[in-house]
Amino acid sequence: MDHVPGETSPDPATADVLSDVAPQLRALRRRRGLTLEAAAQRAGLSPAHLSRLETGNRQPSLPMLLALARIYGTTVSELLGEAPPERDPVVRADRSDPVEAGGWIYRQAGGAGRALQCLRVHVPYATRADIVRVHPGEEWIHVLEGRVRLALGEAVHVLDPGDSAHFDSLTPHRIGAATQGGAELLFVHTLMQSPAADLCLGDGTPHLR
Asked: Cα(84)–Cα(81) distance, rounded to whole angstroms?
């Protein structure tokens, strides 16, 4: 059989692992509602190539697993059938150290490595120098204290305590406090596996306070 880039013939040492990977690949593709042809096109493969991976006749390389994990919205660990470490569902206030990034001060309010990034944030007073951001995902904010100025495209909204906003973060947006002393809010967004420096929290490098 001809060699296809991105895959190798299985050997005895990997046979057990492959027996788990192949059905996982098929199950995850079907869970995403993708045909073999559609998934193969996204991965840059031929349908026959992907079919061989799903039946265990070929062994995917690590780059191939990474590409398929991205397409299926999962991790290589899940593709390999590895159980994720047990996560504590409770985030204790006294274990959440404040972190500063570009004048924003925030505390984790959710678990690490989740699809939702949940934070409690102190937002500084809005200025003209605040950066307008655009990135994939959705954001939700809920004002706890103070007032927040939210610019979405050409529209500007002022949110009072108890107000919320939920928006597509591909819309150009800018968030800042409308009160001199800043504002406190709950902040949730869906950008998976973002390091703290990549969150919409300012333009500086995060550091513990």
From this structure: 9
